[in-house]
## 1
Amino acid sequence: MKSVRRIAVIALQNFKESVRERVLYNLIVFALLLIGAAILFGRISVGVEQIILVNLGLSSISAFGLLMAIFIGISLVWKEIDRRTIYSILAKPVRRPEFIIGKYFGLVGTLLINTAIMTTGFYVALLYDKGRLELSDFRALGAVYMILLQLALVVGVALLFSCISTPILSAVFTLCVYVIGNFLNDIRWFGQETNSAWVEKLTTFLYYLLPNFGNFNVISRTAHGESVPGYLLLSNSLYTLLYLAILISAAILIFEEREFR
Amino acid sequence: MLAVETVDLIKDYLEGFWRKRPKRALEGLNLCVERGEIFGLLGPNGAGKTTTLKILLRLIFPSSGTARILGKDIADVSVHHRIGYLPEQPYFYDHLTAEEFLNFAGELFGLPASERRRRVASLLERVGLEESRNVPLRKFSKGMVQRVGIAQALINDPELVFLDEPMSGLDPLGRREVRDLILELRATGKTVFFSTHILSDAESLCDRVAILHRGRLQGCGELRKILALGVSSTEIILEDPRPTVLKELDRYAPSAVKTGERVRLEIPSESDVPKVLEIALRHHTKLVSVNPVKKSLEDYFMAQIGKKPATSNEKEEVRTREGRV
C-alpha cells in the first residue's frame, strides 16, 4: 500500500513537471490549429466534408500525441540522472521499480489530459461544422481510446530507451520502433513472399518482438462512420497491458542495475 | 549498534569505451561511525568520499565488501526512512517552489499532511528560506539550493544524516548557520556523517574524522586525540627581555624572533618550558603568554596523504587508539 502511495506521489510530481513543459503547450496549440484547419479542408472537399474532418482531426490527435509521448518520454529518466535530481529521490525510501512505474504513470496522465483537450477541440470543430452533435459522432471516442493505447505503448518504449540511452538516440530508436511497428503486418507478408527462409524468420521475429502499432489504426474506418468493434477494443487493451508489462519490467531490470556516478 | 559500518568495501569503476578496464576508486574501506557523533570523511578531490556516500545510499554498488547503516544492510531500502541525505552540488526539480519540493519529499516518507505542513514550515524557517517559500527553485542561488537540500535531508527527522560537502556554495554566514545546525543535530542525539575537503569545517565540528586518499583510508580517529598528538612545541612571548636573558635561554629556545619590544621563543621540548619560565621570572622579565603550538588538522591531513611524511609513531598511535581501522 505504501508502495502504491509512493508511486502515486512520483507520478503526480512527474505530471506536474510535464504539464509545465512549454513545448507541450506549443504542440497542443498546433494540434488545435490543425483540427480547426480540418474544417476548412472539409469545406473544400465536396461530399466528403465529415470524412475529411474526422480523418484529419483524429490524425492530428494521434500525431501530436505521438510527438508529446516521444519528446517527454525520452527524457523521463535521462533528465533525472543528468540533473542529479535522482540522488535525493533514491536516498529516500523509494524503491527503483516504484520510481520507474511512477514516472511512467505521470507521463501517461499528462498524455491523457492533453488527449482530452485535443478531443474536446475535435468535437468543437465537429459541432461548428455540423451545427449539432449526434450520438453516432461519439463513435470517434473508440478511435481516441485506441490512440491512447498506442501512446501508452510509445511511452513504454521511450521509457525503456530512456533508461539506457541519451535523449537523441532514444528519440531515434523510439521513432524507428513506432514506424516499423506500424508496418509489421506488411513486413511479415513481405517475408513470407520472399521465399527466403532467413528473411521469413527475421520478419517473423520482428513481428513478434516489436509492438504492432498497425493494430491500433482505426482512424480511417471511424472517418467512414464505422464504430470500433468491441473485440478489437478488448484485444488491443489486453495486448497493450501485456506489452507494457514486458516493457516496464525490462526498464526496471535495467534501472535496478544502473549506477549513478 | 553502530550508525555506519563498512567492512572491506571495494569499488572498481569500469572505464574505457571498447575495452573496459577497472579503475579502483575505493580500496578495502573499513569504517565505524558511532551513534550520536559528528563524523567527518576528509580527503582531497577524487579521494573516494562521494563514492563512499553513494555506496552507502545504494546509488552505486560495491564491487565487494559489506556495509551496514543503523544495523541494517545497505541493500535494505527501509532503512532510508531513518536517514537523510544532502548530495554534493544538489539540484532539485526547478519548476517546484521550495515549499512544494519539501512537501514532495515529505510525501515520499509517507508523512501525514498536517505533520508535513508543520515540518516544512519549521525547516524553511530553520534554513532561512521562509521568505522564498513560494519562489520556484530555478530562481534560487546556489547557496539557497544548498539550504533547500539541507531542509529536504531533515524532513523525516532522521536519526542519521549524510551530508556531502554541506558547506559548498554557501557564504560565510550560511556556513556558520550550517555549522550551528550540525551541532544542533548532534545535541538532539542525531548522527551526522559528512564529507568535506574544507579542513577548518571538520576541525570545528567533528568528533572523529577519517582521511581518504586515492580510495585508501589513511587514518581515522578522534579529532581531539589527533590534535593533542600534534603538540609540537610551546610558544613563549616575553616583553623586552635583556640580552643576558636571551643568551641564557638560547640552549632551550633555538628559535627567537624579535618583533618590536616583544620576543617570541619556540621551545621544542615540553620539559624545558618550566626552566625557561624560571629564568624569565628570575630576571624579572615580563611574561606575555605561554601557548602550546598544536598541530592543526591540516598538518595531520597533509602528513596522512603523504605531502609531508608523518612519523610512524604518530600514525601507529592513532590506529592503536581507534582499534580496527
Note: Chain A has a mean pLDDT of 89.
## 2
Amino acid sequence: MDEAPTGEPPAPLLEAIEISKAFGDFLANDRISLAIRPREIHALLGENGAGKSTLVKIFYGLLQPSAGELRYQGRPIELRNPAQARALGIGMVFQHFSLFEQLTVAENVALGLDRATPLAGLPERVAEVSRAYGLALEPHRAVWRLSVGERQRIEIVRCLLQDPKLLILDEPTSVLTPPEVEQLFRTLRVLREEGRAILYISHKLDEVRALCDTATILRAGKVVATCDPRAESAQSLARMMVGGEVGAVRADSARTGGAPRLAVRGLTLAPDDPHGVRLDDIHLEVAGGEIVGIAGVAGNGQDELFGALSGERHARRADAIRIDGRDAGLLSITERRRLGAAFVPDERLGHATAPRFSLSENALISGHAASDMVRRGFIDRARMLAWVDRISEAYDVRKSRRDPEAFSLSGGNLQKYVVGREILREPGLLVVSQPTWGVDAGAAAAIRQALIDLARRGAAILVISQDLDELFEIADRLVVISGGRLSAPRLKRHADRSEIGLLMAGVGMRPRREGAHAARA
Amino acid sequence: MLLEAVLLTVITASTPLLLAASGELVAERAGVLNLGVEGMMIVGAACGFAGAFLSGSILLGALCGILGGAALAAVFALLTLGLAANQVASGLALTILGVGVSGLIGAGFVGQKIAGAPHLYIPFVTDIPFMGRVIFGQDGFVYVSITLIAGIWWFLYRTRAGLVLRAVGDNHASAHALGYPVLRIRALAVLFGGACAGLGGAYLPLAYTPFWVSGMTAGRGWIALALVVFASWLPGRLALGAYLFGAVTILQLHAQGAGLGVPSQLMTALPYLATIVVLVAISWARGRAGSPAPASLGLAFVPDR
C-alpha cells in the first residue's frame, strides 16, 4: 500500500478467524486467520495440498467451515452458497474454469449473474467491460472455440459485471503465456486502484513478489507466516512454503555432439478428433547427453506430438521419426520401447498408470517389452515386487504399503514412481510431458535432477512442459510449439524469455496454413 | 382423398412419439438419461384409459396419463438423483416396472372400449377441401404436442430458466459452483419428461385406437429415445424426425396394402432406416463443428459436503 497517505491500514474487508475445515480425519484447514483489506492484492501462497483451495471455497460459500468465524466489513457472516457470497460482493475466478463449453460467451456470463439481471443488452455490456479493462472478448462465440486465456477473461468479466469488492483468483497464471500474464497484471493493478481487494492464490514466487502487497503462507493446512512479499527473497518465501531448504538442481553444461538419438523430419499429422491440433511439418533432433525442452501454452499440439512420438498414433512415413538411426514412424509403442525409448505422458492416473492397478502391475504393463517379469507367459511376482522396491528406493516413493494401488499415492509420489519406472530401464531416449505438473517442490527438484543425471549418462531427453521456469532450469536447448508448429531451436544460454513468450503466443512463427486457434497476446 | 387420409394418419401416428420424445429431450438437456420412456408411456396409457373409462372424460383420462408417467419418473428421480444410482440400469428397470404396473392397472379393462377423443371441427375452415381436415380437423392432443415442442424451443433458447437447464446438462459441477440447484433442476426435468411420456402413452388408448390392450405402446418409447439422440437434442429436428418416422410407417403400410413384392419384414423396418439415415445425414452435414450432446448426460452428480 505504497500510495496510502498514512501508515494506518484500512479496516479489513474480509476477515477469517480461526477457520478450520475437516474432511473425515483429514484437517485441510487448521485454525487459519487472515485479513484482506480494500485496495490490496493479497497473496495466498502454498504448495499443492497446503489447503489454499479449501480456504477460498469457504470464502466463496462452496464449503462450510467446521469451526471458526468469517467477518465481512466487520460483521460476522455465514456463507451457505456462492450466490450469497456474490450478493455480498465476493467474486471468484476458478483455476479449472467453471465454463459451459456448448454455450456462448454472453450466455456463460449470464449464468454467473443474479436472476434479476436482464438478459437483453448483456452482450453489449460484456463488450463494454472487456474494453474498459483490456480483456478482449467476443460475446457471441461458443466457448469451446476459445483459447485458455480467453476463457479466463470470461470468468474475470463475469465477476466484474457484478462490481465485486473482493475478487478471488485461483492460480490464474498457470495457463497463460507471458504476454497474457503481463496483461492480467495490468488489469489487476487497475482493479486495485479502484479500491477493490484481490486474493491471489499462487505458488509462483516471482509473480507474488512482483504483484502482491501482502502474502499469507500456508503449509499443511496452517498459516506459517504473513509478510510483505516485496521485502522477502524468492528463497526465503520458498523456505517458508516448503518448510525447509529446496535442493537446487545441479546442471553442468551438456556434453553433446553425438549423432541424434531422436530425429523427427517433416512430421505432419491431422488430428483424430475435431478439437485436436494438426501437427504441421515438425523437424526436431535430440542428441545423446542433451535435454531439449518444448515450451508452449496448453492445447497447441503438445498432446498430439507426444502421441506421435510415443507411437500412440503412427506417422505417415516410417522415416518421419527415427530412434537411434532406425525408422520408427510406423512402429508400435512396444516396438519403440524395444529400440530403447521410454515415454512418460502428462496424465499420471489413467494414462501413465491404471488407477486401480497396484504399482507392480503398473510396472508390468509398461515394462514387459523390455524386462524379464514374464516367463513363458506367467508373471513372476517376486521380480515384479523387487522392481517396485527398486524404483521406490531409488526415487524415494512414499507409500502406505509395499505394493499399493496407483490412485492411493499422492501426485508427487506417483509422479516419482512413473518417472523412476522409465529411468531405471536406462532408456536411450526419454520423452516426458509435464514431468512436475502438480508435484510439490521437493519431489519436483528430485525429478528434474533425475532427468539431468540420465542425460549426463548419455540419454537423449525431450521434455514437453508448460512451465517455462522448469525448462529454463533443466533444458540445454529450447523449442516453442504453437498451433501445431515448432519454432527453430534456441540454445538456452542465448534464449530470451520475452522472445520465447512471444513465440508461445504465436507471434513470429511461420504463417500457418489453416485457422487453428491460438491464444492472442 | 387418399392423400388427405394418409396425411391424417401420419400425424396421428407421429403424435405419441413427438410427445414422449419432447419430454425426454428436456430431461436429457438437463443431463439425465432416462431409458425408462417405454415404461412411463405404458403406465401413462394404462392410467389414461382407466381414468377415461371410469370418469367418461377424455380430459380426465389424459390427466391421469400425465400423472401416471410423472409418478414413475418420480421413482426414477429418487433413485438416480436422490441416491445417485446408475441412470442406465435404473432406466431399464423402470421400463420393466412400468410394463408390470400397466398390466396390473389394465387387468380389469382388457377388451373394453371408449369413445375416442373428438376431432376438432371449425365450420367452413375444416371444410376447406384437401388440407382443411389435416390442419384444422385433428384431435386436441395433436395441437398440444405441436405447442409443446414449440414451447420447449422457446423455453430452452429464450428464457433464463432454459439457459440454466442447458448449463446444468453441459457441466453440472460448474453449475453447482455458480450456485444453481443442480439436483432440483434435474428432478423437475425428469418429472416433466415423465409427464410428457405419460401423455404420449395416454394418446394411444384415448385417441389412436380407443380400447385397451396390454403392451399397446409396442416399443414407441424406445423409438422416442432414439429420436432424441438422432435429432442431436434439437427441438426442431426432433419434430422433423417424429413426423418422418410417422410418415414412413404409414406409407409402408399402404405400400404393403398395394401388394408390392417386397418382404413385409423389410417394409416394417423402413421407418427406422429412413429416420436414422435422414437425421444422421443432417447432423453429419451441420454438426461437424462439434457435437451438441449434453456433456454431463448420464453422469450422477454428488455435491461435496
Note: Chain B touches chain A through 21 residues (CB under 8 Å).
